[in-house]
Amino acid sequence: MKVFTTKKELQQHLLQIKNAKKSIGFVPTMGALHQGHISLIEQAQQGNDVVVCSIFVNPTQFNDPKDLEKYPRTVDADIAMLEQVNCDVLFNPPVSEIYDDNEQWHLEIGPMEQLLEGKSRPGHYQGVTQVVAKLFNIVNPDTAYFGQKDYQQFSIISKMVELLIMPVKLVMCPIKREADGLAMSSRNIHLTTTDRQHALVLSKTLNWVKENFDIAKISQLTHEAELTIGAEEGVELDYFEIADGKTLLPADGHSSIIVALVAAKVGKTRLIDNVILSR
Ligand code: AMP
């Protein structure tokens, strides 16, 4: 695997690939890689000649400086994992390679920006669109792969690609879970053994909602889910929402895709998860 830390060297390398008419698949990450990330790499490998992964803990998407500081960084282990699956290229730049001092960014994304994660993490999606736009400009991939795990992020990035007419195809990959159902996440490293047990209420409740989706009202399902999660020791519910999969507003009779999304603090760690209920 070739590892680059500067835009210039990465772009020189990718130019040869583009000149040879090879397709580029791109998987942006913040590192602390797990099998969820690896599943994105593997899906990118199936559809492209060359796969580029980036590892960049993006400071502009963290509204809490402590959260940024605490974010796990395991670059050596990440490189070993990427080499094991034969990823072709890693871009691992320092912050100074991506941002100038006091850089400004604002993209008018619409109402979705303020919902769910946006409500709890003000400015988060401005930071996400800022970094993904830069990474797309640097890598210029044919296709970029993102996880359903961050469902709202995928919707926001799709909107950005549409608004800015970016020549990239987006693919959403399924959520990878531990054997007991917990959605894989870099943040799971912070869970204590007891947190880890309590965290299972999230995936279990989402499964229960999926199983009962055809027989119960959305309002009932939401109410029950809120009660169950709220009653779990050590778990502080942020939101549980059954939403329209396109707008992320509360689902109604016109919703063609419906998704249940949850965020909660388990111990000191904030986790998110979701399940698609109908298409
Ligand atoms: P992150 O490093 O957390 O920014 O995630 C990088 C990419 O991996 C994003 O597109 C995430 O949605 C995706 N991802 C994270 N966790 C999972 C998972 N458990 N299954 C599938 N994709 C995931």
Walkthrough of the structure:
The structure is a single chain. It contains eleven helices and nine strands. It is α/β, with parallel strands linked by helices and 279 residues long. Helix 7 packs across helix 8 and helix 10 (200-212) runs antiparallel to helix 11. It is globular and about 55 Å long. The protein has helices spanning 7-19, 35-47, 65-70, 75-84, 95-98, 117-120, 124-139, 151-163, 193-198, 200-212, 218-231; strands at 2-4, 24-29, 50-55, 89-91, 143-147, 169-173, 235-244, 258-266, 269-278. It has two domains: 2-173, Rossmann fold, CATH 3.40.50; 186-271, Pantoate--beta-alanine Ligase, Chain: A,domain 2 (2-Layer Sandwich), CATH 3.30.1300.10. Strand 8 (258-266) and strand 9 (269-278) form a beta hairpin. It has a six-stranded parallel β-sheet, with helices on both faces. Residues 29-30, 36-37, 39-40, 146-147, 149-150, 173, 175-176, 183-186 line the site of adenosine monophosphate.
> Radius of gyration, Cα only, in angstroms?
19 Å
Q: Order of strands in the sheet with the most strands?
A: 1-4-3-2-5-6
Question: In terms of structural class, how would the helical and strand content be classed?
Answer: alpha/beta
Query: Fraction of residues in helices?
Result: 40-55%
* Bound ligands: adenosine monophosphate
Q: Architecture of the largest domain, CATH level 2? A: 3-Layer(aba) Sandwich
**Share of β-strand residues:** 15-25%
Oligomeric status: single chain
**String of helices and strands:** EHEHEHHEHHHEHEHHHEEE
Q: Please give the alpha-carbon distance between the first and last residues.
A: 39 Å
Looking at CATH, which topology of the largest domain would you report? Rossmann fold
Mean pLDDT: 97
How many structural domains can be distinguished in the coordinates?
Answer: 2
Q: With helices defined by DSSP (H or I, 4 residues minimum), what is the helix count?
A: 11
The CATH superfamily title of the largest domain: HUPs
Largest beta-sheet details? 6 strands, parallel
Name of the CATH class of the largest domain: Alpha Beta
Low-confidence stretches: none
Coarse shape: globular
